[in-house]
Structures are given as structure tokens and as C-alpha cells.
TrEMBL record:
InterPro entries: Aldolase_TIM, Chorismate_II_sf, Class-I_DAHP_synthase, CM_dom_sf, CM_II_prokaryot, DAHP1/KDSA
One protein family per Pfam: DAHP_synth_1
Ranges for domain Chorismate mutase: 230-319
Protein name in UniProt: Chorismate mutase
UniProt lineage: Bacteria, Bacillati, Actinomycetota, Actinomycetes, Streptosporangiales
């Protein structure tokens, strides 16, 4: 077995005001690539910036919180080396078809050329989430997943252990001017660019789609993070934020539960409070106590009585009883 399969605790890398790799997963909505975005996209305070050439590096050092070694040029070693030595955290994208060993090898090279602050990043149209999980555990480096091409993978990426999601900066800012393309889909991707009439519309569509995309990513980080991401908050604000995420997940589940309980009321011969089934309620509590042994049956029973009664009230209200 390769030694890269050893598992390491994942360290944290600060990127601007974000801590990537410890605590909650983050959403990064501003990744700029000077290979495709206009130079003006590199505004002060941008989080991630990818150079087109070495000439871009001084401006990136001045304006960006981290430099991206992009998937399309991981073999341009002089540029990789210059980017890694810039003094910023380095985000190392996996070249499509690169193996985990190649990816981690490049990350280690960047760590050696720089000050060691390296974050892995997986992207493309079909991000390999199993590889993200394995690479993160094997290297101890935090990992981001760029879900711009398929926002529907946001929840899966967080579940796979991603320390953050990147959503395309074009979708996040909608800075288009002029006519051109403005596409917004249900999953929230959009770009606005061009010159002439229709610009505002294109930019507006891109902005709306970008905001929707951000909500999808934030939702995944919050709800899936609350369910699956290990956290040991050390401060009062961090702990309260962690509780807020758990409450968001709870509210989502409570609403879902109330809908299901409402369907049951319509399916039973006698619904509502009149058809209350205390045996079934006891079974519900007993099963939950297996998952929540610290709370135990008697505390859970009080909680679930309130939950069940709220569901019955809602069902009766809706049925006009
Ligand atoms: C949903 C039902 O109706 C009532 C509500 C329950 C619940 O919310 O879990 C459980 C038992 C019943 O008192 C059911 O019978 O399953």
C-alpha cells in the first residue's frame, strides 16, 4: 500500500477572512481567472485569482487572498513555481485525468516552493468526489470543490468532506456590460458579457442566477455540514454559529416531517387528534433514543410530543377542521 493512503488530520489554511479546513465548510463566490475573465475582474479583495502569465503575479499578490495553480497549466513548472513562491496561500487544482499521486505531488512541490500553505481544489464538469476525500485524508491538506459546472453536486461535495465550495465568480457578480449572453438556469449559473443593448438584462440575469447559486452552496454547507461535518468549536461565537447550522438542519427536517405527518392524516381512516396513535408515538421515541442515547427516552418523549402535536395542529388547520 502506498504511504499516501495514510490518513492525516486536516490542517487549516487562512484565506483572507476565511479559515479553510477547520470548522465549517466555506463558500467562495469570487474566483477570478485572468485566462478567461477581463483584467478588471482582479479587483482588490478578491479571494482566489489564477494568473495567465507570470506578469499577472504582482497584481495578484496585491489584490487576491490566494493564488490558483489552474488545472490547465499544472505542467508549466516555471509559472507554478513563481505562483507558489508569491507569498500567498496556493490553491492547487487537479489537472483533469491527473492521479491522486500527481495531484498531491504538485501540492507538495508548491508547499516547498512557498510557505507551506496549500489547499487542494477539484473542479471541472465531473469533479471526482471520491478522489477529493482520499486526497484530503492522505495529505492532511484542506480541499475545495469547484461546483460551478454543476451546483447540484454541492451537497455531495460537502458530504464527501470538502472544506469549501467554489462557485464561479461570473455567476456571483454578474458584471456584464452590453449585449451578449445571459443565461440563468434553475441551478443558478449565468454569465453576462458583451457590448450594446441588452447588457443590463444579461448582467441582471447573471446576478440573479449567481445569487441562486450561492444559496444552493450555502444551503449545502449549512445543512449537510450540520449533519456530517465534525466540528469542535472553541469559542462562544463559533459554538453559536455551529448551533445555528444545526437548527437550520432541524428546521428543514421539522418542516419535512410536518408535511409527511400531514399526508398520514389523510391516509388514515381517522386523521388528526382523533386518530392519534400513542403506541406508534412510543415506538417513534424508542427508535430515536437509540440514535440520541444522551437525551434518552424521557426527554425525547417531551420533545416529540410537541413536534407531533404541532404536526397534528397544522394538518387540522389545513383540512379546515
Ligand atoms: C403520523 C401519524 O399520526 C399521528 C402523528 C404521529 C407523528 O407525527 O409521528 C404519530 C402517530 C399519530 O399520533 C401516524 O399515525 O403515523
Amino acid at each position: 500500500m502506498s504511504s499516501t493512503l495514510e490518513r492525516h488530520a486536516v490542517g487549516a489554511v487562512a484565506v483572507g477572512g476565511l479559515l479553510v479546513g477547520a470548522g465549517p465548510a466555506v463558500v467562495i463566490g469570487d474566483r477570478v481567472s485572468l485566462r478567461t475573465d477581463p483584467p478588471a475582474a482582479l479587483r482588490a479583495g478578491v479571494t482566489l485569482a489564477e494568473p495567465a502569465t507570470a506578469a499577472d503575479l504582482p497584481a495578484i499578490a496585491e489584490h487576491a487572498a490566494a493564488v490558483v495553480v489552474g488545472a490547465s497549466w499544472t505542467r508549466d513548472i516555471p509559472l507554478v513555481r513563481a505562483a507558489a513562491g508569491l507569498g500567498l496561500p496556493v490553491v492547487v487544482e487537479r489537472r483533469a485525468s491527473a492521479s491522486m499521486e500527481e495531484w498531491l505531488g504538485l501540492a507538495a512541490y508548491c508547499a516547498g516552493e512557498g510557505d507551506g500553505r496549500v489547499i487542494l481544489c477539484e473542479g471541472g464538469s465531473r469533479p471526482d468526489l471520491a478522489l477529493v476525500r482520499a486526497a484530503r485524508a492522505a495529505s492532511g491538506r484542506p480541499a475545495l470543490v469547484d461546483v460551478s459546472a454543476d451546483l447540484g453536486l454541492s451537497a455531495a461535495a460537502v458530504a464527501a468532506g470538502a472544506d469549501g465550495l467554489i462557485i464561479d465568480s461570473g455567476t456571483g457578480t454578474g458584471t456584464g456590460t452590453g449585449t451578449g449572453t445571459g443565461t440563468g438556469t434553475g441551478t443558478g449559473t449565468g454569465t453576462g458579457a458583451g457590448t450594446g443593448a441588452g447588457a443590463a438584462q444579461a448582467a441582471g440575469a447573471a446576478q440573479a442566477a449567481g445569487a441562486a447559486g450561492r444559496r444552493v452552496a450555502e444551503e449545502a454547507v449549512t445543512v449537510v455540514g450540520a449533519l456530517l461535518r465534525d466540528e469542535t468549536p472553541a469559542t462562544l461565537p463559533e459554538c453559536r454559529q455551529a448551533i445555528d447550522r444545526v437548527d437550520a438542519a432541524l428546521a428543514t427536517l421539522l418542516e419535512r416531517r410536518a408535511e409527511l405527518a400531514g399526508i398520514v392524516q389523510r391516509l388514515k381512516p381517522v386523521g388528526g387528534f382523533a386518530g392519534r396513535d400513542l403506541g406508534r408515538e412510543r415506538d417513534v421515541v424508542a427508535r430515536m433514543a437509540v440514535r440520541a442515547p444522551a437525551l434518552g427516552e424521557s426527554r425525547l418523549s417531551a420533545i416529540m410530543n410537541a413536534v407531533i402535536e404541532a404536526g397534528l395542529h397544522l394538518a387540522e388547520e389545513r383540512s379546515g377542521r
